[in-house]
Amino acid sequence: MQEDQLVARLRKGDRRAFEELVIAYQHRVFGVAVRMLGSRTEAEEIAQETFLRAHRALPEFRGEARLSTWLYAIERAELDGALRDAIAALPDERRIVVILRDLEGLSYEEIAEALALEPGTVRSRLHRARMDLKAKLERFTQ
Which one of 7-16, 77-86, 102-111 scores highest in mean pLDDT? Predict the structure, then answer.
């Protein structure tokens, strides 16, 4: 079946069309998840969550992108959300150095100057923050 026909059926709420979507894309979504996560169990969870989110988001799908692109964007959003949550949960002194270094691209020296810290303190806090993030995001990096 052509993708545009499947999209039309999905928009009409055709349950069989959603089953066909899962059958057509489950191996690709799972494969990408396994390569990103390195864990079959975690990949299965992400793939299932991706299809659940896709089902809920079907009314918003405009058809401007291919279905596969849309599904991968949903999966990527899951990973991005977990990272944002993990950064937000860091203690203030660690969160600020992660934001300034990894998101804003400041050098260690610029961060040290902005926060009135020694560069070694910045490096230490950044290292601890990254270790915290690694632990919080372990399910995505195994």
Answer: 102-111
Contact yes or no for 102/56 (Cβ under 8 A):
no
**Residue 110 within any structural domain of the chain:** yes
| Long-range pairs of 11-18 with CB within 8 A, sequence gap ≥ 24 | 11/58, 11/59, 11/61, 18/55, 18/58
CB 122 within 8 A of CB 112: yes
Percentage of the chain beyond pLDDT 70 is: 94
- Global model pTM greater than 0.85: no
Task: Please report the DSSP string for 34-54 in residue order.
Answer: HHHHS-HHHHHHHHHHHHHHH
- Separation of alpha carbons 47 and 21, rounded Å: 13
Q: Give the amino acid at 42.
A: E
**Domain-terminating residue out of 51, 78, 105:** 78
